[in-house]
Fold:
Amino acid sequence: MSDYNAPDPHAWLENLDDPAAAEWVAAQNARAQALLDADPRFAGLRDEILAHLRDTRQIPFCAEHDGWLYNFHQDEAHPRGIYRRTTLAAYRAAEQDWQIVLDIDALAEAADEDWYLDGVSHCTLAPLQAMVHLTAGGGDAGIAREYDLAAGTWRPDGFSFPEGKSHVAWRDPDSAWVCPGWPGAPLTRSGYPREVWLVERGEEGRHAWSQVFAAGEDAMMVAAWRFLDADGAPLDLIECSDSFYSKTYHLIDDELETQALPLPAKAELEAYLHGDLIVKLAEDWDAAGTVYPAGALLAVALEPLRQGRIAAQLLVAPQPRLAVESVETTRASVVVNLLDQVKSRLLAFDKADGVWRERALPTPSGGVIEFADQPWDSDILCYSFSDFLTPTGLYRLDVASGAQECLRRQPEAFDPADFVAEQWQARAPDGESIPYFVVRRRDAPLDGSTPTLLYGYGGFEVPMMPYYVENFGPHWLQRGGAFALACIRGGGEFGPGWHQAAQGVNRQVGFDDFIAVAEDMVARGLTAPARLGIEGGSNGGLLVGACMTQRPELFGAVVCEVPLLDMLRYTELLAGASWIDEYGDPDDPAQRPALAAYSPYHRLRGDLAYPLALFTTSAKDDRVHPAHARKMVARMRELGHDALLLETEAGGHSGNAGQEQTAQELARVLVYLYQRLMD
Structure:
């Protein structure tokens, strides 16, 4: 095991501008590609996955603005993508009647930049005015520039903000809230904005800038935006994050004066409707003698709050295996997406005579619902529904009447008749029951022979939920494999308590849960260590890296994607300092031993046998530094172990790249899993 305080011999791989580091990465890529791309199955897999991505029967998810349905689309002719629109009638009829309003390939070529679309933000009250967010190579940093969708051009006097991790949001058609994140602007230690400005349109682009708020240097970040109530009344707010989970909300009045709201530090403002703030608690809140528990969803009246008084109504009370997953508002109602035993159901809340009342909504059950769109000034809500074996359907629901229709359904990628999806339970070392899902052949023998891939995340209160396995169905299940999804502590499957149980110095709890799930599948006879692979990305990359170094004999394959692995230096790399709330501070003598105990980079040993692991990252990942994966592979080689590294040039942390790269990356992972678990 490493000396935690010794100089790092592989620190040179942290330098993204070092030609020697680039040469080393190129050699690793060539080595991994020689093993994977040369496999006779690779080319066919890549082509099949690409064809599936480009299948015009795939659901084009849309955002509706002023009667138009807008969609981002990539295909062979437009690898970077186009932003296009159609009418609801044409969409219902599945007609390919799309108007292109923005061509990202053309923009990139004209600017000679490696642009990818990071989002289009329509001004709510003037939706033909759009803020276009473009990112170079798929990273988090990007530019924001105003586009006239009616004219099909950049607006000559429009807003334009340079590249950075900025936050830009419309205030009204002629002004925007801007939190500068570009070079030269005051930034937090994490590299995020710490100031809020109001930028008002001026003639010939000479806009007026007014500073509204400045956070302290030790804050994590600030953001600002405008809510519009059902009657159009505006509410301007600043969210100042002192850390990842502690924040203060500030009102902005017409004179640009700010007022901090007396809400608890660990609370999330989810929505605003009928004069009430919809607030989700991550800690108990004693509100004027009434204690609301962590996990509760409240409606808090704004006007009394301005005066320092609390007038709140409890909408959803926490339960042991239930959590509020997301919240949306329509013109009249608050809609809550609940996770109940990691399956979705929707509730609507309507306000009459000052009281919010609950009613159920008629939606499909037994799977997972995700909000897709809510057209402004309407009671329409669009959502998707799927489970492991049910293709995604896109539904349009009238929340007021309960009437709904299925607008589109994704085509079946495989015949589900031979498969079953089940929820099993494992027992953690401390006795907690850990749910996980298994998708397998109905007739899979329980003799340990089934190649099985276990996926997990376990962090940041993000739940792992069932989803349609459109690529793993035909390319893994139908080849005899099984797929498992672990709902371990650290995630958000059962609310803040489930997350906090594996937060900070308690991180090992989540790793123990994941290992318990793996052991449970082996004990049941579904699979065996030589047939068991694990996969995770970002925080999930830390998860599988930690489990590999702690129990290397339990796994035959490890896919570790855009991971954190050096937990003693993570705060010094890119956005790492923003996650101290989640992991703990390695510079704190009281917390450092806990991080050192599981840090995968430091736990590697020369006298253990590790599975041949595949590490992936991106040179354009400006959130989790690619050095985590680079150094892990270098350290394993130094200790005499083999390991594979694939580092893409584009894509960033979220894989925001073209479809060809996406298909290529997934095909390589599948080939790796075939070689390690099936051959």
Summary: The mean pLDDT is 96. The radius of gyration is 25 Å. Residues 200 and 208 are 5 Å apart (CA to CA). The longest strand covers residues 126-136.
